[in-house]
Amino acid sequence: MPMATARHILVKTVEEALELKGRIDGGEDFAEMAKAHSECPSGKSGGSLGEFGPGKMVKEFDAVVFGDLPVGQVSEPIKTSFGYHLIQVEQRVS
Q1: How many independent structural domains does the chain possess?
Q2: Helix 30-37 and helix 14-25: axis angle, to 10°?
């Protein structure tokens, strides 16, 4: 079964997600941005979600993590029922 390790930042608005993505793309640390801005409890650990397989997260999230987002790259904002996520896949194993 495929497995992945990923981190994310959860915010309420697409504007906030885009601002944070710009800061990360400009060199700011993803984990530090998660600690400072994420609304998910995982923010305290830099947004780390640990290792998980398909079906453990909402479908929009899984589509990114197990899709074609290159490892290490930060996704565009992804809308789910929780808000807007920036996702960074740390590792993906088929």
Answers
A1: 1
A2: 150
Domain span holding position 75: 3-93
Write the CB contacts of 41 (distance below 8 Å, at least 6 apart in sequence). none
Residue with tokens 């909402």: 58
Rounded (to 5) percent helix, strand, coil in the chain: 35, 30, 35
Give tens-digit pLDDT for 11-47.
999 999 999 999 999 999 999 999 999 999 999 999 9
Q: What is the CATH number of the domain that holds 74?
A: 3.10.50.40
- The residue among 75, 86, 70, 83 whose CA lies nearest residue 33 is 86
Predicted TM-score of the model (pTM): 0.96
